[in-house]
Design a protein that fits this description.
The protein has 15 helices and two strands. It has about 300 residues and is an all-alpha fold. It has a two-stranded antiparallel ribbon with strand order 1-2. A hairpin with a 2-residue loop joins strand 1 and strand 2. Helix 3 runs antiparallel to helix 15, helix 4 runs antiparallel to helix 9 and helix 14 packs antiparallel against helix 15. Bound molecules: geranylgeranyl diphosphate. The site of geranylgeranyl diphosphate has 16 residues, from helix 4, helix 8, helix 9 and helix 10.
Length: about 300
């Protein structure tokens, strides 16, 4: 199966590109070498995690840390951990038992490239590796209590009450008429929880108190909702070349999406309102949050 290149870069911002490189370096170091046995499993894990995604979630971890006065480089183990959970979720989501997709990030999906059994196991191993990688915050001088709280936040966001649970609700809603409130509940779990965890982890590394960590998590949840509404809208109108994954799949599978429940114009307004609320919250954080504000603008303007 041939590759299909993304037609547009996610960002041309030099500072963001430098951070994506730092994130990819952290991922590369966290992942086992492709030459280490079992080679096929490790090659599949590297294929899924290092493929050219936007790295939105780890970028948010770094920007959240910086917005609260931390040095963003100290948050790299948390950023890599978040991206490893995301990579696991994409590998499993693409499997024939779930969305049965054959393209992701402009390449054949992991199960197309490595077979279903190895892709399933690579997803499992990526999830386990995320928690091992998060423990690397200790090398950055983050205290054990904060690391334990970061582990709890990431585990909760990845589990049955959030990410995996959202996917089950998503499956159950397939082919049914759904109300906006139901779609919102699915999106909050499937996408909002992990983006909320990204902002919470950055805040934890920065040394923020519990109230501030919760406030950052809420900011992330709002952003996650806006992000998933964008995803729903692009799935209807964009192309395989633009997205690096098949478009039109939500309608074909009868998925619970914002446009299906509310129509396109109201969905666009809902996403814009969620971004505006996020921008307002970020502006109140002061100048140190400017990079976070610019990242959110980049996300709002995305075409893939
Ligand atoms: C345990 C069998 C089993 C399944 C779990 C966790 C899960 C299935 C599915 C997760 C749900 C999911 C994939 C939600 C989609 C969220 C989303 C918008 C993904 C696309 O994110 P981007 O645009 O992608 O950030 P890139 O490729 O840029 O990283």
């Amino acid at each position: 199966m041939k590759r299909t290149r993304h037609s547009r870069a996610f960002t041309r911002d030099g500072a963001l590109i430098a951070r994506v490189r730092a994130i990819d370096h952290a991922l590369d170091r966290a992942l086992p070498a492709a030459s280490a046995p079992p080679r096929r499993l490790h090659a599949a894990m590297r294929y899924a995690a290092l493929s050219p995604g936007k790295r939105v979630r780890p970028l948010l971890v770094l920007a959240s840390c910086e917005a609260l006065g931390g040095a963003w480089r100290r948050a790299l183990p948390a950023a890599a951990a978040l991206e490893l959970v995301h990579a696991f979720s994409l590998v499993h989501d693409d499997l024939p038992a779930l969305d049965d997709d054959d393209f992701r990030r402009g390449r054949p999906t992991a199960h197309r490239r490595y077979g279903e059994a190895v892709a399933l196991l690579a997803g499992d191993a990526l999830l386990a590796l995320a928690f091992e990688t998060l423990a690397g915050l200790g090398r950055e001088g983050v205290g054990a209590v904060r690391i334990a709280e970061a582990q709890r936040v990431l585990a909760h966001a990845s589990g049955s009450r959030e990410l995996v649970g959202g996917q089950v609700l998503d499956l159950e809603a397939e082919g049914r008429r759904v109300r906006a409130v139901d779609v919102r509940a699915i999106h909050a779990r499937k996408t909002g929880a992990l983006i909320g965890a990204a902002l919470a982890l950055g805040a934890l590394v920065a040394g923020a108190n519990a109230r501030r960590v919760r406030a950052m998590e809420q900011l992330g949840r709002g952003l996650g909702l806006a992000f998933q509404i964008q995803d729903d809208l692009m799935n209807r109108s964009a192309t395989l070349r633009q997205l690096g994954k098949r478009a039109g799949t939500d309608a074909a599978l009868g998925k619970a999406t914002y446009p299906a429940a509310l129509g396109e114009p109201r969905s666009r307004r809902a996403a814009a309102a969620a971004f505006q609320r996020a921008r307002g919250t970020i502006a109140r954080l002061g100048r140190r949050a400017d990079p976070l504000g610019r990242l959110v603008q980049t996300i709002e303007a995305r075409t893939r």
